[in-house]
Amino acid sequence: MTPAGAISLGDIGFRYGRETRNTLSISELHIKAGQRVALIGASGAGKSTLLKLIDGRLRGWSGSCRVLGQRLDPQRQPPRSWRRKVGFVFQEFALVQRETVRRNVLHGRLGHVEPVLSLLGRFTDKDDHAVDRAMCDVHMDAFADKRVDRLSGGQRQRVAIARCLAQTPRLILADEPISSLDPMTAQSILTILRDRASARNATLILSSHQPALVADYVDRFIALDAGRIVFDGPPDQLHEHRLSGIYRNAAATQHERPHEFA
Ligand SMILES: Nc1ncnc2c1ncn2[C@@H]1O[C@H](COP(=O)(O)OP(=O)(O)OP(=O)(O)O)[C@@H](O)[C@H]1O
C-alpha cells in the first residue's frame, strides 16, 4: 500500500487505437504526497496522456496505477468520491463558454454537493467562499459576471485554474497551465499553484514547455520522450546539456515517425 496522496505506477503500457508503438511505456514511477512535479518533453512525448492516466480518464492501458490510495481500473471510471479529490486544469480549458466566470468556477464545487442540490443551484456559503477566493487568487474577481466567451485566452486559462482551485483538490493535475499567459501572469499563477498546493499538502503535477520558468516552483522534473521517462530529478540537476539532449532526442525520434506528423 502506498502512502495516502502518493501516486504509484508500475509497468504501464498504453497505445492509442491502431498505433504500432506505445504512447506510454513507464516501468516505475512514484510521486510522494505534497510533491510538486513538472512534466516536460517535446510535443507528442506523452505528457497529456500521462496526466489523463493519473486522472482516471484513460482506458485500455496495462500495468498498475494507484492514485490517492485508489487502484485505478483500466476499463472503468473511478468512483465519484475519489474524483472530487483530483482537480484537472485542461489544456483547452474545457469551460462552458456561454456561462459567466463565477458559474464556471462554481463547477469546481460540484463534487462537494449532492448532485440533486447542484441541479437546483444550491451551493453553501463554504462553496461561495471557495469560489470567491479562487477568483481573487487568479485576479479574475472583477470579471465574475462576465461571460467566458467574451474573455481573452489568458483570462480563460485563469478561469480554468480558478475552477480547479475552488475544488480544493488533494491532487492538482495541470496540462500546460501557463501556455497562454504573459511572463508576469505566468509567474503569479505558478506562485498560487505552488502555495495553494503547499498549504494543503496537495500534490501538484503540471506539464510545461517552459522548464526555465517552472523550475523555481517545482521540486522535481520528469522528462518524457516517446512515452518513456528519460530524466527524473530535481531542477538543479537538469543542466542545459541534458535539457537540449531531451529535445534533440525527441526531434530524432519524431523524424523516424513521419507518418504521425503528416
Ligand atoms: N486521442 C488520441 N488519439 C490518437 N492519438 C493520440 C490522441 N491523443 C494523443 N495522441 C498521440 O499520442 C502521442 C502523445 O500525445 P500527448 O498529447 O500525450 O503528448 P504531449 O506530450 O502532451 O504533447 P503536447 O506538448 O503537444 O501537448 C502523440 O503522438 C499524439 O499524436
UniProtKB/TrEMBL annotation:
List each coiled-coil range.
none
PROSITE patterns reported in the protein's UniProt record: ABC_TRANSPORTER_1, ABC_TRANSPORTER_2
Q: Where is it found, in Gene Ontology cellular component terms?
A: plasma membrane
ABC transporter domain segment(s): 7-251
Instruction: Please provide, alphabetically and separated by semicolons, the GO molecular function terms listed in this UniProt record.
Output: ATP binding; ATP hydrolysis activity; transmembrane transporter activity
- Domain of life, source organism: Bacteria
Q: Does the keyword Nucleotide-binding apply?
A: yes
Q: Which Pfam families match?
A: ABC_tran
Key words, A-Z? ATP-binding, Nucleotide-binding
* Cross-referenced InterPro entries: AAA+_ATPase, ABC_transporter-like_ATP-bd, ABC_transporter-like_CS, ABC_transpr_LolD-like, P-loop_NTPase
Name of the protein in question: ATP-binding cassette domain-containing protein
